Amino acid sequence: MQAYIQDKGSERARYSLIALKPFWGALRPDQICPELCRDYIAQRRSAGAGDGTILREMTDMRSSVRRYASNAGATFDMPSSPPPKDRHLTRDEYRSLREAAQSIPHLYLFIELALATGARSSALLGLTWGQIDFDRNRIDLGIGAKGKGRAIVPMTKTVRRALVAQQPRAETVFVVEYAGRQVGSVKKAFRSAADRAGLKGVTPHVLRHTAAVWMAEAGRPMSEIAQYLGHTSEKVTFRVYARYTPEYLAEAASALEID
């Protein structure tokens, strides 16, 4: 698994290893069997992990075994894929969240950026002023894991105003900063702001989902949304977000019309 993590260069795989190691660490690949997989799934569920998280962990383990011990005879029993998460913010909810963060400048800016770019937290917390192009009115979200390029997105008027206001106060090269240092995580501050706004089930990632839903509701093509989110496959975008488009299944419904 360590070799797989180094090769993949994924933060997600590192988190998977932390979860997997206590249960699987003393076992050989050939000892992996459906019964133990089901025991692991049950244990992680009892610890509060969702099936999506468990599936990611076991997928990383299966991929590492297939890559480095393909002849070991390991057999897996995987949890089912959970349905796509539906939680996104209405415009009023977003305004409430933003208002609740006004007293925390770095969180306020993060929230504005998250909605305007649809980017993941890691991209925004690593964003530097060199990636902000005011002349061309765009934000280059940079390079992700294993050198994968992220999206270059236009600035909304709202986020441009926030960035212009923040730049003269900047103490570091990082756009999202606090007390003269790069911010490593906004989870705690974000959770507090969400509580003050009376919002349940809202995490930083919900803002990425919200951005995509709003674009889909506005009738933007799936190809555009996929590029904005940096999806490598438009199929992923369609599977999750097509149902939010105004025309979704409209032609199918028309076949059921009756006078």
Main traits of this protein?
5% strand; two-stranded antiparallel sheet; three-stranded antiparallel β-sheet; 259 residues; mainly alpha
Count of alpha/pi helices: 13
Helix and strand pattern? HHHHHHHEEEHEEHHHHH
Q: β content, as a range?
A: under 5%
| Helical coverage, percent range | 40-55%
Uncertain runs = none
Cα-atom Rg, whole angstroms? 21 Å
Total beta strands: 5
Which oligomeric form is depicted? single chain
Overall average residue pLDDT = 90
Largest sheet: 3 strands, antiparallel
Shape: globular
Q: What's the arrangement of strands in the largest beta sheet? A: 1-2-3
The rounded distance between the terminal residues' Cα atoms is 62 Å
Helix/strand/pairing class, anyone?
mainly alpha
What would you note in describing this structure?
The protein has 259 residues and is mainly alpha-helical. The chain has helices at 2-8, 11-24, 34-46, 51-68, 91-100, 105-117, 121-125, 157-166, 187-196, 204-217, 222-229, 234-241, 250-254; strands at 132-133, 138-140, 152-154, 177-178, 181-182. Strands 1-2-3 form a three-stranded antiparallel beta sheet, with no helix packed on it. α1 runs antiparallel to α2, α6 (105-117) runs antiparallel to α8 (157-166) and α6 (105-117) runs parallel beside α10.
